Amino acid sequence: MKLTLGFSPCPNDTFIFDALINKKIDTEGFEFEPVLADIETLNQWAQQGKLDITKLSFPAFFTSLENYTLLNTGSALGKGVGPLLISDAGHEISSDEINQASVALPGANTTANLLFSFAYPDVKDKKFVVFSGIEDALLNKETDLGVIIHEARFTYQQKGLHKVKDLGEYWEEKMELPVPLGGIAINQSIKRSAALKVNELIRKSLEFAFANYPVIPDYVKQHSQEMSEEVMRQHIDLYVNNFSLDLGDEGRQAIEALHQVFLELNNAEADDEDVLFL
pLDDT at residue 154 above 90? Predict the structure, then answer.
């Protein structure tokens, strides 16, 4: 059985899927066609049900429940892992100033946008740009503030930029739950028995990666050539953890809480037929 599998070229994703894509484990008759794209592109494709299996931000998942169900493995959740609101100014910025500022975000469907809206629901001037361009947008005075994700968490200070608020920390303080960032979802057109097998294979792929860590697989390096191995490991250490192996009760609770926040911010109600988890 051949399935399309979409994920980002970031180290956390390539680390999880390396053994699966490159058949370092027995894929038990399944073949996976990798489709690498930035997270907002994957989010947009999810609205169309384009891929069989896909990484996606949780807000994109919440608007794709007619197409996808979340797998139990492969997700990015954790503590101290959230996006950061940053500025090029070294002084403290008030909430009133933030509400009036222009803010660059990595996409309308991203968890970064949802967590920012959770903390600052009154901000109106949002600019959606590719995540890798947010620091430059700040440095070039194209925006007042920016919300960064991925490896920018480890490099923004080197560019003279400053943290205004850790949006993940704000979520943790308010909700007392880990931060759900992104998940791996499977198209509902795939039979449940096959979906369960895919879930098991992704878990085995990650277990293989953990067993050989801290060695960085060549597959990860190929897609992260501009990063040092130290930054690759920081990325993996931050975003790949026990929740990636198994959501568990706490992980599911965190996702359900984020779903409720998403509904409230969008003045929507849950559909009784919506099923989040496989």
Answer: no
Contact between 77 and 151 under an 8 Å Cβ cutoff? The reply is: no
Q: How many domains does the chain have?
A: 2
What digits encode the pLDDT tens for the residues 168-178?
A: 999 999 999 99
Task: Let me know if 91 is a catalytic residue.
Answer: no
Q: How far is CA 25 from each of CA 35, 73, 111, rounded to the nearest angstrom?
A: 19, 16, 31
User: Do 181 and 43 touch, CB atoms closer than 8 A?
Assistant: no
Same domain, 169 and 46: no
The catalytically annotated residue of 150, 223, 235, 259 is: 150
Give residue-wise pLDDT tens across range 102-122: 999 998 999 999 999 999 999
pLDDT band at 270 (very low <50, low <70, confident <90, very high): confident
User: In three state form, how does the secondary structure of 201-236 look?
Assistant: HHHHHHHHHHHHCCCCCHHHHHCCCCCCHHHHHHHH
3-state secondary structure of 125: coil
Half-sphere exposure of residue 109, counting CA atoms within 13 Å on the CB side?
Answer: 20
Domain encompassing residue 16: 2-78+179-265
Total-model pTM: 0.94
Inside any domain, residue 229:
yes
Residues 255 and 237 in one domain: yes
